[in-house]
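The pair is set out directly below:
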Amino acid sequence: MHLDMPRLRLRRCPFLAGIFLMGAVAAGLSPAFAGTAQAAARQYSVDAEASQLRIRVLRAGPLSLLAHDHILVARGIKGRVSFNRDAPSASSGQLDVPVALLEVDDPKERVQEGFAGELTESNRAAVRNNMLATDQLNAAEYPRITLAVDRAEGELPHLRLQARVKIRDREQAISVPVTVSADSGTLTVSGEAELLQSAFGIQPYSSLLGAIAVQDSILVKFRIVARAD
């Protein structure tokens, strides 16, 4: 991701993203019980307006005080969940994030994140353009970031999701602790995870021989809300 700084022009804006939905827990069910659980699964659709997915990209290097930390917010999240409260192992889910709708350094979001300083509109536009460029997310060729849950471990409400995230042409396995709640037709999964930009083929920004840079590690924080059909 790109840093903006006094007297230095924004260059790049790495991203990651990321993003987490629910899936299954409790392996080892008998075939008969598994079939009953699947039949009782309830179907949900992700509520994009109620859901939140935020990505923190922090500055690094000896001259990092000249730069800014960044916050990205995912908009237009889509997804489906098949969930059984009594047998989460019979559940499944997928998530889809439109790359073109990623929002960069909104002033209100920066305040919420506790980041100092406000970027100008021109700086925000430069960060966004670089983020979508071919050497970064390459939105023209890879318009979506996706997540698929393979399985989950643990017991409600605290699960650990084993999932796959695909960004550009790179897919990585992730293991994410989450908290799940399901009541009144609403399903919510929340948590956070650290990811590496380099794992998805994105080179963290660096200039002046590393004096100004961004950290390879980024923090993805999420609260995904889904409504029963």
About this structure: The chain has one domain: 31-228.
